[in-house]
User: Fold these one by one.
Assistant:
Number 1:
Amino acid sequence: MLRWLATLVIAGLLLLTAMLPSTSIGRRGTEAQLRADVPQAVGRVGEPMPDFTLPDLDGTPVRLADFRGHPVLVTFERSVDW
């Protein structure tokens, strides 16, 4: 019984993977369309990022400009309470 259920779930996921790109929510569009939809998405690989301020884990504001000249990796992770 459990094996059949797992097979159905996997088949459903494969079908979703095959069908989703052809739907309106699955289409990403061109980069120009994305940039028009999200004007804040201005960064490009190899270009300097515009300055912004984000809170660190302690809530202290951290400016990107404070790290100019150093490699920076900015990650965004979803928290449990979203």
Number 2:
Amino acid sequence: MRAPSIFSFGFAYYLLLALFLYLPIVLLIIFSFNDSTLLVFPFKGFTLKWYQSLSNARELLDAVRNSILVGLFSSFVAVIFGTMAALAIARFNFPGRSFFLAISSLPLVIPYVVLGVAMLLLFAQVGVELSLFTVAAAHTVINIPYVMLIVAARLAGFEQNLEEAAMDLGATYWGMLMRVTLPISAPALIAAFLSSFTTSFDEFALAFFLTGTDNTLPVYLYSQLRFPNRLPLVVTLAAIIMLVSVILIVFSEWLRRVGTKDVPRTS
């Protein structure tokens, strides 16, 4: 059987897809070194002044801090509730299990704009003032399904006999979770946390509707697009964030792959 040619349709399709996905990222990084406020070729010159100017952009750094705080809080809470939901789905067969799974997965298919408006109305009705807390609450809601699915896949990757053996040897249910289930699921938990943090850090629609006086980074960047002289700083910070996001995604994917192999099994 003849091997497929490197110039086959599949290779051309993959090449075009890679260019479509990654060329904008490459251009973003390139323009962060351009010594001009105009994002056009040819370059006026190579400079690092935009990276140096970031340290003096107080409002920009505050927005970065806000996004980090929201991302850490929402990811931590989402991992807790998402892991609980994954345990319920993977280890228990209870009435309404399919309905529970469907309801838990709804934030994956509901547009964030619609969800943002709905949560804005909810917070207004119950008298909750818009703040970073309301943004974190919304991000927790959208991150729980991701955590649930990632952890559930990990729980399905090792035999339940390990947990049963631990309880037969005298461990309580909670002791078994702390000593067997959660340690084995640790790579998936870390991957779920990193994926949730990346989603929260980059999310715009919910934050736009639910933020108060303290903006998150995506909302702040959107507001700065009206000022041409601020655009190079926005591009520079976006380049840094893009690189960090790619690193986190690659690392979380590596953890997920590690978590799905070399799983101890009972005979």
Number 3:
Amino acid sequence: MTFCGVKMRIRCRLILEYDDEKTARIVYDSVRIDDGRFVDTRLDKNKVIAGMTSVSPASLLHTLNDYLACVSVAEKVMDND
């Protein structure tokens, strides 16, 4: 995306806070394997923090949607244990 001839990048930081570090670790381990050029996931105690970068709002929305779908699956798997 360009604005006035300047190439733009759009960034988003998502912080998922869980009740305990064990739950955060399970979600983190589940979703970080899909990190690529657009997502950087890290773990901070009971929080999973994801930084996302994109070239357009639509692309960022797509990345965020995919990421949250993976988080949802990880959480559902934990609920079924």
Number 4:
Amino acid sequence: MRREIRLSGYGGQGLILAGIILAEAAMHDGHEAVQTQSYGPEARGGASKAEVIISDEPIDYPKVTAPDVLLLMSEAACKRYACTVEPGGAVIVDSGLVQNVPANAGVVYKIPVTDISVEATGRAITANIAALGVVNSVAKLVSPESLERAVAARVPRGTAEANLNALRAGMAAAQEAGSRAFQRE
């Protein structure tokens, strides 16, 4: 088993923290994991991406080459990375922030991640954690228990309850995605 995940958006959305949390959850489950990150010089508001590789074997190259799971949380990220997904991979788009998804080889899930976060916690700042819930529910990367454990360990002190609420709301939204409110293309 080898999974390549790219979480992309703009600086300030917390996607690098989300990547760290996902890698830690994979290690809790006994997998090999590596996480890399990059962001523009503007930091907040500029381009940002976190990449995670999860494997049952040693990882010899730490960069994602063709993600089978892709999270897109800005128009710029969508334009730049949508075409990089592996054929049949999951392309998860924050439909509240991204309107135009270019043609790609993946299965597109349009889910209003930031809106879900605001509804669950009253704050958009937890959208990165709601996105983890969506990504993990769609792609089945790690156990929900390990993901909750990693979230609780990594989020800022005093915010664990709100972030766990966002995570659970993201998981619930993704589980409902196949049956009703969200578009799957």
